[in-house]
Structures are given as structure tokens and as C-alpha cells.
Amino acid sequence: MTQGLFDAPVMLESQLEGLPLKSRGKVRDIYDLDEHLLLIATDRISAFDVVLPEGIPGKGAVLTQLSVFWFRWLYEYEDIVPNHLITSDVAEYPRVCQPYHDILKGRSMLVQKAAPLPVECIVRGYLSGSGWADYQRTGEVCGQSLPHGLVESQRLSEPLFTPSTKAEQGEHDLNISFHAMEATVGKELANTVRDASVKIYQRAAAYAEKKGIIIADTKLEFGVHPATGQLMLIDEVLTPDSSRFWPLDGYTPGRPQPSFDKQFVRDYLISIPAPHLPPEVIAQTSGRYQEAYRVLTGT
To answer: Is the domain of 182 the same as that of 101?
Structure first.
């Protein structure tokens, strides 16, 4: 990735003329290109379900390129479901995209259309975040009992699969039981998605640990090919926005861990009355995203 991607945040607050906008999320803009979708990761950043006025330079490029890295890496394992990535090379995009080459370069993907499952698939390998808060209250995480005496950030004996609803923008995802997921998508599909999610997490976590990063948990999304019915991994995958990344060096159970993800921004916002980010927080957050990419990919 070139340094120019990190010079100033790209917010893309208006639609790209001539491209049909399908949806605009907190971070991504999605354009409908017939049988394909164009996913553009902006430098917008959200915390507590609110998009902040300031962006993080290069964030969208890191999210995109790290997703591309993982999609290609996971593709080598034939026993895991395929993914929706077609290409991230703008020169291979449809002609209608070419006037926006400079905007799209580094921060976009052309992907296969899919019908998204109405659930998000969370895999937790460590006791942290809302899982830790749940455990403190109930001794459980999303209804799954855990042994007594665990501490914050402790590694779990086995990863936990904890699905949630997929909320509309501005609303909160709600944890649901696996039984509720079965009732929503069907028993067979629920089991297939659960097994694929855990397998993806375990393999990626093992790889990342060798590189010096702990993937404490991650959120995955799946969809179904509209013509073939093939299950696919979609959206982003194993990025600092969808996962909790900790440096392995210095990992100490019993306390919160320093992170490569946007937890740094959340921690700052908790300490102030208004949702604005000063230059030093923006710079440090951008650096953390870049460092996660460098460590995981080696480039």
C-alpha cells in the first residue's frame, strides 16, 4: 500500500455518479453492478454505533487489503466454504468504474452477489469485551456456561460460537442462542455455518499467533449464491474492525489488553463528553491499523 493512502481520510460522503448505490453503512459503500457488487471501504470510523466526524487515514485500505489477504489465504483450504472475492484490481473492474480508479485503488473489492444470512457469526477464543461482562454477571457467555474463576482476557479451552442478530444502522446487534439461529436459517445451515466459523477462526488464530498477534475474537458473515445456493464467506474478514487483535508480546490474563483495533478509539471516547477525535488519537489509531496489516501480511 502506498503512503498516499494515509495522507488524508477518504470519507466518500456523496455517491459516485453513474454507479448505482445499493447501501451505505457506517464504513462501507456498496454499489450494485448487475451480478456483482462493488464494496468500497472508506476511512469513516464508528464507535458505539455512531459514525464519528473525523476519519482515520488509510483505514479503508487496511480493511480492504487485509480482507483480500485473508480471502486468498483461506481459499487454499478446500474444506472451508468459498468466499465472494472476485478481484481487487481496479483495472479488472467494469468500465463504468474506471473514472474512479484513484478513489477505488487499494480500498475496494469486486465481489460476487450473495443473499446475506440474517445473522452474524461471532467466535470467541478469549474472555473479553461483552463476553467478559456477561460472564461477570451470569457465569455464562451468551447462555453458554463457563467454569468458575476465569479472569478477564483468559484464553478459553475451546472457542465459543455466539451468533447475533444483524441490526440496522444505528441499532444494536442482539446475541441469540444457537437454537434461535437454527429457527432462523434452518438446522442444517446453522450447523454448517457454525462449523465453518470455528474452523476459520482456529486456523487464522494459529497463523496470527505465529506472527505475534492474538485474535481474541472475530465476527464473520455468510451469504448464499443467488443462482447456485452455494454458501460463501462475505463482507470483510479478520480485520481490526471485525476482530479483536492483541499483541502476543506482553499478553497477561487478568486485565484488558492493548489492541490493534478500534478499542483504542472506544477507550478515548469513554473519557470525554463529545464524540470528536484529536489529531494524536487519529494518528495513533491509523498507526495501529497499519501495524496489524504489516505484522499479519509481512508487507
So the answer is: no
